Amino acid sequence: MSEIQGVRGFRYSNWANTFSCEPELYFEPTNVDEIRQIIFKARKEKKKIKVIGFGHSPSDIPCTQDYMINLLHMNKIISVDKETMQIKAEAGLTLHDLHQEAQKQGLAVSIIPSVSYITLGGLLATGTHGTGGKHGILATYVTEMTLITAQGEIIKCSASSNKDIFDAARCHLGALGIILDVTWQCEMAFKLCSETEAVTFDELMTHIDSKVDECEHFKCHWWPHTENVSCHRVNRSSEPIKESVSWFWNHLIGFHLLQFLYWLSTFFPWFIKYINKYHFILLKSKPEKIINEAEKIFTMNCLFPQYTTEWAIPREKTVYALKQMKKWLETSGFYAHMPVEVRFVAKDNIYLSPAFGHDVCFIGIIMYRPYGKSVEIEDFWNFYEDLMFSVGGRPHWAKAHKLDLNALQKLYPNLDDFLNVCIKLDPDRLFVNKYLERTLFPLESQNHNYLQNHAK
């Protein structure tokens, strides 16, 4: 067997070009033996390893100066069990391709996030979620996983086998090993009906709980500096497919004109409130009914590069948090881009899931980078993070945040259990990069006693 060769001079950048790195060696393995070669080479040369997906994470969570692995060639469907409605696939497969395979088999993925061109291993790394008060994060639909450890050992885990590893690996941050394959619980194929309506901010605040509970999936977008909110109610449907009639205008205005207007606002920041107001009136103020399969209902056009962050807060804190955000934007003099996205997720028992232990509301904010131009975000980001933390919020792991180990221990009651699994599977921290050093493994953790003092 020939030795897999790494590539020098590779530069990684995420989708928004907000984070990048230049690993010493870049690998695209095609099988488990090649992955094991990379692991042994890294251990011999005292290098670290990080695995990347499609680069949608707006943070440095996949960045490294050592060895980088892309599983784009390990993207095959392994098996389909129609009786149990489970699909087993390699971790480099995208959620889009999993959904397409499910459709061919008369099955469906129960929930889709805003972006589906993400790998199965990658979405499990960061706690990727969709929306629906009765639906958990995507990892709650995983029934079994296989990973390879820092010692080259293959481990299978599920709710009935190696449960501690399973509860850690379903939101693994790339810290446990390399995910090789994932078994996904599907259901019979279905269509969804999405109905959109415009409401005022105050109306949303008054009725938000009933709006969430009266449908299977609910999300809303608030346009800062206005009273305008677009609500999306999604339920199962047996009606014929009905496409969006506003696609052309959304694409033309939403991308080209909007980018120009936000670029113009970098010289005249006060112009943003008018952009937000008239964008809503032109594109989002009219009711719309769409019927289609899940991926076409849930995925959205991210338009153009942007800074973005998102936290999950206890659902009961939603109204307070949104009102505080609106109040701050009205008095601070900061002009925020549209939209503020609000989604809901059911609780789970995954160690580092933002929804561990209680139902949550994810609130996401963005500031666009028109034509790649940098814009001011610091004041807004600092206020937002302080507000989210004050109500017991947890950051989305794919997004950049400023929390360290001490702060995270206050938010995650099972963080020590996660660290225990890390000690067991990767005692020498082969898979720890600067992001993980900053959040879960401070530099002192190179001394094993540090971790052991924090793990029961």
Task: Kindly describe this structure.
- This protein has 14 helices and 20 strands.
- The chain has an eight-stranded antiparallel beta sheet with strand order 16-13-15-14-18-19-17-20. Strands 6-7-11-9-10 form a five-stranded antiparallel beta sheet, with helices on one face.
- The protein is α+β, with helices and mostly antiparallel strands and 456 residues long.
- A hairpin with a 6-residue loop joins strand 1 and strand 2.
- It folds into four domains: 59 residues, Uridine Diphospho-n-acetylenolpyruvylglucosamine Reductase, domain 2 (2-Layer Sandwich), CATH 3.30.43; 117 residues, Uridine Diphospho-n-acetylenolpyruvylglucosamine Reductase, domain 3; 195 residues, FAD-linked oxidases, C-terminal domain (Vanillyl-alcohol Oxidase, Chain A, domain 3); 54 residues, no CATH class.
- The C terminus is likely disordered.
- It starts with 11 loop residues before the first strand and ends with a helix.
- Helix content is 32%, strand content 23%.
Return the average pLDDT rounded to an integer: 94
Cα distance spanning the termini = 42 Å
Q: How much strand content do the residues show?
A: 15-25%
Give the helix level as a range of percent.
Answer: 25-40%
Output the structural class. Answer: alpha+beta
**CATH fold field value of the largest domain:** Vanillyl-alcohol Oxidase, Chain A, domain 3
Number of helical stretches of at least 4 residues = 14
Poorly predicted parts: 444-456
Rg result? 22 Å
- Total number of distinct structural domains: 4
Largest sheet: 8 strands, antiparallel
- Biggest sheet strand order reads 16-13-15-14-18-19-17-20
CATH class bucket of the largest domain: Alpha Beta
Would you identify the CATH architecture of the largest domain? 3-Layer(aba) Sandwich
CATH superfamily of the largest domain, by name, is FAD-linked oxidases, C-terminal domain
> How many E-type strands?
20
Outline type: globular
